[in-house]
Design brief:
- Helix content is 81%, strand content 0%.
- With 300 residues, it is mainly alpha-helical.
- The protein has one domain (6-299).
- The radius of gyration is 18 Å and the shape is globular.
């Protein structure tokens, strides 16, 4: 495994900031588009990811063609379904019935799924006791961070279940990508996953096209383009990190995503404010991440 460098931390921070902004931007887009119903949500998600995949293709055109021709079909479908289709079917629905801060909180559960699934599917080492302790400290920090903004708005039970299923699907997709990236470049796999997954979501939302186009406004269009850019950039960077670094290392740093999501939702979504819990929770999270990086350097 490569040692953790300044470039690693910078890429993780960029991914966290971009994905964190998705929570409030999608919520605001729902309002701007007057999105009503699951079908229109899927049209919105499908356009976002199809555009994102197309944005990546010019940077790896030959690799995309080669990957489509030679990659094991089972693994490729595994990544497309896990990382794009199933993850965002659950995610978009959950975000429509509950709050962005709740989504940011439960998005951190992906780290636990990774730590449980990786030893079974990738034959990696089990996390040490200290690593579990750092993950637990991160969990406590996330809980504190979302306490003040009121993460329990909306349909909490249904939203929580769907957010957990979304993070489980994403973890499966990431593990499939880890297997596939041993033979093919992560950038080409990302382009295929986003583009093909976006087309699948468009098919799922086929009946919502009329309502979606009828309510499409300039503001919503800009939000859609931003989300496509966000996905193309963040997934390309993160999947490259999956290819290069230990799953256990990345599972810890995923906690920056919900931290950014809570802060950005509090700043951008009306009615959610930054409280003392975010300050205290953020301190715990950053301390745990620092401790995790020290453990990894010591192990190396």
């Amino acid at each position: 495994m490569k040692p953790l460098s300044f470039s690693f931390y910078l890429q993780v921070l960029v991914c966290a900031a971009l994905w964190g902004s998705a929570f409030p931007v999608i919520k605001l887009s729902y309002e701007a588009l007057a999105i009503d119903g699951f079908q229109e949500q899927m049209v919105f998600a499908g356009l976002r990811f199809t555009l994102a995949g197309l944005l990546i293709v010019p940077f790896c055109r030959s690799s995309v063609v080669e990957t489509v021709r030679t990659a094991p079909r089972g693994l490729l479908i595994w990544v497309i379904l896990g990382q794009t289709v199933l993850q965002y079917v659950f995610f978009y629905y959950a975000l429509s019935v509950s709050s962005g801060t709740l989504g940011a909180l439960l998005g951190s559960s992906g780290s636990f799924w990774w730590m449980l699934l990786a030893p079974l599917l990738l034959r990696t080492a089990l996390p040490s006791g200290w690593q579990w302790a750092m993950i637990g400290l991160c969990s406590l920090g996330i809980g504190l961070a979302v306490y003040a903004p009121g993460a329990g708005s909306g349909q909490v039970g249904l939203g929580a279940l769907c957010f957990l299923l979304a993070s489980l699907s994403g973890a499966f997709g990431a593990i499939g990508l880890k297997k596939l990236s041993a033979f093919h470049g992560s950038r080409a796999i990302t382009a295929i996953s986003l583009f093909a997954g976006g087309l699948c979501l468009l098919l799922v939302g086929l009946e919502g096209w009329d309502g979606f186009w009828r309510d499409l406004s300039g503001k919503a269009l800009w939000a859609l383009l931003y989300l496509a850019f966000l996905s193309a950039t963040a997934f390309t960077l993160w999947n490259r990190l999956i290819e290069q670094y230990s799953v256990n290392v990345l599972s810890a740093y995923r906690f920056l995503i919900p931290l950014c999501g809570v802060i950005e939702s509090s700043l951008l979504v009306e009615g959610e404010t930054i409280g003392l819990g975010i300050v205290l929770g953020g301190t715990l999270i950053l301390g745990a991440l620092y401790g995790m990086s020290r453990l990894e350097r010591r192990a190396a």
